[in-house]
Write a structure and sequence with these properties.
Elements (H helix, E strand, L loop, with lengths): L7 E5 L5 E5 L15 H17 L5 H13 L2 H6 L4 H24 L8 H9 L2 H10 L2 H12 L4 H8 L3 H20 L3
Length: 189
């Protein structure tokens, strides 16, 4: 699915004056957000986040755009918890916390950080009650990186600059750490 905008549109001001302004991208109508493929959801999320940043919070269009983002990305909640039977029981107890995590991720996401939304959102949806004991088992460096990345919302490049590592090294450590945490969540503790 490709969505793009071309040209300008004429806007009439409250005083009746007309002027040309850059056209806002025309977004497709999404009748059933549950049927949006993950590939299309990634593309549409970028467009919707771009639109959300240009809207005034509290307006009906802002609310509709935000709601569409939430509904379209609900599949992330299930993906964040994996597909094992042990997790299915936990999933029922934690789905509302995960839904809240998704909403927090949508509210905090910033396109200028140049990170894919799914990468940004999943940590907000993990079950922190299950994670707490596993976090204490991590080394000091791993705990520091997680705190800087997800609590202080620093980019990998910012973390690398602060700690004296390359962004690539930070990326590898975070990837290993998150893989370890996900694996721990899938086991029966």
């Amino acid at each position: 699915m490709t969505v793009s905008a071309h040209g300008t549109e004429t806007i009439t001001t409250p005083t009746g004056a007309k002027h040309d302004a850059p056209a806002m991208p025309r977004l497709p109508i999404i009748e059933d957000t549950g049927k949006v493929t993950p590939k299309d959801a990634r593309q549409l999320s970028g467009l919707l986040f771009d639109r959300l940043q240009s809207l005034e919070e509290g307006t009906p269009e802002y609310s509709r755009t935000r709601s569409t983002l939430i509904e379209m990305n609900m599949s992330l909640v299930g993906s964040a918890h994996g597909a094992s039977a042990a997790v299915a029981i936990r999933r029922r107890r934690t789905s509302s916390r995960s839904d809240i995590g998704l909403i927090k991720a949508i509210d905090r996401f910033d396109l200028s950080r140049e990170v894919e939304f799914t990468t940004f959102a999943v940590p907000y949806m993990e079950d922190f009650h299950v994670l707490a004991p596993m976090l204490h088992e991590l080394g000091e460096r791993e705990q520091t990186l997680l705190r800087l990345r997800f609590a202080q919302e620093m980019t990998q490049a910012e973390i690398g600059a602060e700690l004296g590592y390359s962004q690539m090294h930070i990326s590898r450590i975070l990837s290993r750490t998150l893989t370890k945490l996900r694996a721990g969540m899938l086991t029966d503790r």
